[in-house]
Design goal:
Layout (H helix, E strand, L loop, with lengths): L3 H12 L1 E5 L3 H14 L2 E5 L2 H11 L3 E5 L7 H10 L6 E5 L4 H9 L4 E4 L4 H11 L2
Parallel strand pairs: 1-2, 1-3, 3-4, 4-5
Helix pairs in contact: 3-4
Length: 132
């Protein structure tokens, strides 16, 4: 018989891949490790251009996207992806979002905009509720 934790980990794996795009390596690595420990399958990207090249083909169950990326903002990357037919639910994560930026992100179609540091239990529930 599987424990509740094992059953939830199995459910998380069956969702498919969760993509994480964040240029802050220490935050990204900690977030990825936390998601993997919960049972998610995760792919990570440090730079917008590498994410852009892969995400259209990958079609993750959910995208976790840093708003403040170098060269191309997370919102700009998201808009390019949308133009390419990207449909995965997207959760923006940022260290400094004003109410105006939050409204703009949500108006663009993102499902949420969370502040760093992220509370992993809240993120887990959010991913489980929106992932396809």
């Amino acid at each position: 018989m599987l424990s509740d934790g094992d059953e939830m980990a199995g459910k998380r794996r069956r969702l498919g891949v969760i993509a994480v795009v964040d240029d802050d390596s220490s935050f990204r690595e900690a977030l990825v490790a936390s998601l993997i420990s919960l049972g998610f399958l995760v792919v990570e990207f440090e730079a917008p251009h590498t994410a852009l090249a892969a995400l259209g083909q990958l079609m993750p169950a959910c995208l976790l996207l840093d708003l403040d990326l170098p060269v191309m903002s997370g919102l700009d990357l998201y808009n390019v992806l949308l133009g390419q037919g990207f449909t995965a639910p997207t959760i923006f994560i940022t260290g400094n979002a004003s109410l105006g930026i939050r409204a703009k992100v949500l108006k663009s179609g993102a499902v949420a905009c969370l502040n760093k540091p992220v509370v992993i239990d809240e993120l887990d529930r959010l991913i489980l509720s929106v992932a396809r």
